[in-house]
Amino acid sequence: METESEPYIRLATLRQLHQVVADLNTARSFADTLQAVADGVIAGLGFELSAVNLVRPDGDLVVAAVGGSAGAEALMAGRVGSRTSWERRLSMGERWGDLRFIPYSEGWVLDDDDVPQWHTPGPAPRFPDEWHPMDRLFAPLYAAGASGGELIGVLSVDKPRNGRHPGAWGREALQMYAFHAAVAIGNARLRGNMQRALLRLEREQQALRASEESFRQAFEYAPSGMAIAEMGGDQHGRLLRTNDALCRLLGRPASAMRRFSFSDLVHPEDIGTLLRTSAEGGRAELRLARRDGSYVWVSLRNSVVADAADGPRFLLTHVEDIEERKRHELQLAHRASHDSLTGLPNSAELRARLAARLCATAPRPGGGYEEVGAPDGGGADSGGVYVDAAGHLHGFDEFEFFGTPPPVETAPFDGHVHTVPPNEDSDIDDGHKGLAVLFCDLDGFKSINDRFGHHAGDAVLIEVARRLTNGVREGDTVARLGGDEFVVLADGLGRADAADLAVRLRNAIIPPIRVDGRAVRVGASFGIGWAGCGMSAEEVLHSADQRMYIEKRSRSKERRRAG
C-alpha cells in the first residue's frame, strides 16, 4: 500500500498543500497567478517540473508559465501547441478522475507533434509504478473549476520526487489543486478586469459613463459575489449594492441585502476576523449567514473605490465561495487523524489528545504546593497557580476569596490543570478522580482472521469499535491503536469506576457478532492505567499495556474467550 493511500497522512503535507492553494489568491497580477500555479506544483505536490498551458482566444494553447527548471522554461515558455494536438492528448491514456495519464508505452506517438515538451528517453521501468521519463500526466483546467465547463488550460506535471506514479492521495491532491488553480486563474482575470475598470473610473473623467457601464457589467455578471458598501459616517459598512451571484450565494434578494452590513451577516465567532480586515486590500476567510439560517464559508477581498476624483469613497468587496475547499480541508484533516476502517481516532490522534492533558511537572506525593509554569518563572506578582493536598489547581485570582497564597515563584497561569493519578499503593479507594487509560486487546481475533479471512476480521473490528463507542460517555475517547488493540480515555473516574467501566466494555464485546451469516465471538483483556503530569504519553500507554498483559495472563484461554 502506498504511503499516500494510508490513513495517516502527514500533517506537514496537508499544511504544504493548504499553503500553496492559499498562495494562489495572493498574487498581484495575472502573470504572477500563472507562475504561482506552476510553482505550487513544485512546492506542495512533490513534482520537479510543471507547466501551465493556457488557452488563447484562437483556441490554441500557449505555455504561459513553467516551474522547477530554468532550462525547461527557456525551452518552452511562450511556445504554442495546437488545440487539435492537445485534444488528442486529453483523449488518450488512462483517466484518473479528471486527470489524464499517458504511459511511455503509448505516448511515443506524441513525440513529433507540435506541443512543447521536455521529455527525454530512458530505460524501461524497474517496477510497475516507477515513473518513466516519457510518461505524461495532465490536469485539465476548467472555467469555475467544474469538470464539465469550458477548458481554459492544461497543467502538465513531470518527475515526481519519489520516482513513482502518484497514488490515490497524490491524484486526489493534484485534482483538487487543479480545481483551485482554475478558480484562481478565473479570479485573477476578473480582478484584472475590475482593476482596469476602476482605473478608468479614476483617470478618465470624459469617459465616465462608458467606464461606469463597464464596471456595472463586470460587477453584475461576475461569477462570484460582489458588493458595494458605504465608507465612513453613521452608515459605515451598510450594503448599497450586491450582484446576483452574492444574492444567490446567501439566498437573499437584493432589496433585503440593502438592509444589512457584513457585520450583521457574519458568524458570531468570525466577527473579530471581520473587524480586523482592513478596507484597502484586506482579505479574510469567514462565514456568512444564509437566509435559511445556515452559514457558508467565503473569502472576502476589499478595495476602495471613489465615485469621482474628489467624491465619496465606497468599499468594493469581492466574495468568493470557498465552502468546497473548506470541506476538502476538513476531510483531509479527518483522514490524517482517524482510522480509515473504524472511523475512530488513530494512534497519532490518541497520543496528541493524551499529551494535551500532560505536562512535565509532577505533583508532589502527599499534596503540598507545586510550582507550575516555566522553570525560570516570573515574579511573585506575575500571577500563578498552586496544587493543594487533593491535587486541585488554584489560580491566584482565587486568593482574594481563599486567603493568602503560598510564596511561590511561577510564570503566569497558562490554563493548564494538572492531571493527578489516584494513589494505587493503598488497597482503599480514596475516591480521587483521575484520567483513566483502558488498554483493550481482543482475545481470539487472530483465529477469526485465519479461519474466515481479513474481511471477517475487519467486520469484527468495526463492530467492536461501535460497541466500545456506545459503552462510554460523551466526551470520552475511544481510539484504535492498531491491529486488534483499542484504547479508551475516560476522565473523572475513580479506581472503582474504571474497573466497572472495563467490566461493562468487556461484557459489551463478548456477545456474538454476525459476519456473513455466521456468528463469531471474541473476548477482551483490559489493562487500566492512569495518566498523570510528569509522565509522557508513551509512558502512560506502556503502563496500561503492561497491566493488560498481566490481566490477560491471569485468566485461562477459555475464560478470556468468554470474557
UniProtKB/TrEMBL annotation:
Gene3D superfamilies with a match to the protein in the record: 3.30.450.40, 3.30.70.270, PAS domain
Domain PAC span(s) in chain numbering: 282-334
Keyword Coiled coil: yes
Record domain PAS: where: 211-293
Keyword Transmembrane helix carried by entry: no
Transmembrane segments: none
Entry-linked PANTHER family: BIOFILM ARCHITECTURE MAINTENANCE PROTEIN MBAA, DIGUANYLATE CYCLASE DGCP
Name of the featured protein: Diguanylate cyclase CdgB
Gene name per UniProt: cdgB
